[in-house]
Design goal:
This protein is mostly helical and about 325 residues long. About 70% of the residues lie in helices and about 0% in strands. It is built from eleven helices and no strands. The longest helix has about 55 residues. The radius of gyration is 27 Å and the shape is globular. The two termini are about 20 Å apart.
Length: about 325
């Protein structure tokens, strides 16, 4: 037991160290890529600031007030009113999904208090929902991969976490491209900026530098502008929620894979067959022999993370808890 705890402590320390190193490397890359551009923009805006003060005899307070006015004017011209019912639905969506663009925020004290209380309940509820959807999607992807292998005539129809991760990433990338094409059409962004916006949204980063549904009317003036706007709002919310479900599934599979890599000595259950009269042990190779001493000694659950992985793999193999009870199998 002491050795197991020591190994887990070492792995946790290595994981923390690798995360910190990854963060520092990312900071170095972003600093190298963005610093010069930031300095250039800063000089540009300082020059504009000085010209306003000199040409129009404005004080620094006047310039700041003008900046606040222009910012508020931008909010006033939004095609989707932030606190209409549709705008409020959009706000609650980005709140409980933890996207948090920051494009519209509560201004009253009562609204801010309600936002905190609402988020305390909504965020756990939302995360639980996406976790459940992600697990169901993992089961569905496993079923699809088994059918594909069956159609191709492959002998081995086992589906590993690597296969699921690969399929999930492909589906997620295809969905990102579809969403980017939609936003590129409606928002008149180029495809790469739309892809960047959709990725930042689905990963719940939500920088807020680009926000959809703000200039629909001005960019799409037509007789059927209202219907087009309503359809676009509904499509945006659907795309965001479906994309978050796919992202949750893929991230869940990636976490499972990382947890699996942290347990190199864990015994896998891929050699257990449920199609015949009983399970077959990989060591004794006899049907119906459940209490194999060698398997029993190696299938001890070391910690909760291993139990989660085992339960997840059993679910992917379509083995329910009821089946385990009926066959008197060790859980």
């Amino acid at each position: 037991m002491g050795k197991v705890l020591q190994q887990q402590n070492i792995r946790t320390l290595l994981l923390i160290t690798s995360t910190v190193i990854y963060m520092l490397l990312g900071a170095a890359v972003f600093s190298a890529l963005e610093f010069d551009e930031h300095v250039s923009q800063k000089k540009k805006y300082l020059n504009i600031y000085k010209r306003l003060m000199e040409r129009y005899n404005m004080s620094s307070e006047d310039v700041e007030e003008l900046a606040r006015y222009l910012h508020k004017r931008r909010h006033v011209e939004w095609s989707l009113e932030p606190w209409s019912f549709a705008g409020s639905v959009y706000f609650t969506s980005v709140t409980i999904t933890t996207i948090g663009y920051g494009h519209s925020v509560p201004q009253t004290i009562s609204g801010q208090i309600f936002c905190m209380l609402y988020a305390c309940i909504g965020i756990p509820l939302n995360l639980t929902m996406f976790q459940a959807i992600g697990e169901r999607m993992g089961v569905l992807m496993s079923f699809v991969l088994r059918r594909i292998k069956r159609c191709l005539g492959l002998k081995s129809r086992d589906v590993s976490l690597i296969h699921l991760v690969a399929l999930g990433l492909i589906i997620w990338f295809a969905f990102l491209c579809a969403g980017a094409a939609m936003f590129s059409h409606y928002e008149r962004w180029d495809f790469y900026r739309s892809l960047y916006y959709f990725f930042v949204t689905l990963t719940t980063i939500g920088f807020g530098d680009m926000v959809a549904l703000q200039e629909v009317n001005r960019k799409h003036p037509s007789n059927g502008a209202y219907n087009s706007k309503t359809l676009y709002i509904a499509s945006t919310l659907i795309m965001i929620y479906v994309g978050l479900a796919i992202a949750s599934s893929v991230i869940n599979l990636l976490v499972m894979r990382l947890m699996e890599l942290q347990q190199p000595k864990r015994t896998r259950r891929t050699n257990v067959s449920w199609r015949n009269s009983g399970p077959r042990c990989s060591h004794c190779k006899h049907k119906g022999q459940v209490n194999c001493s060698e398997d029993a000694s190696t299938n001890i659950v070391e910690n909760e993370s291993i139990m989660i992985l085992q339960n997840f793999e059993e679910e992917l193999a379509f083995t329910s808890y009821k089946q385990i009870q009926e066959n008197n199998l060790p859980f």
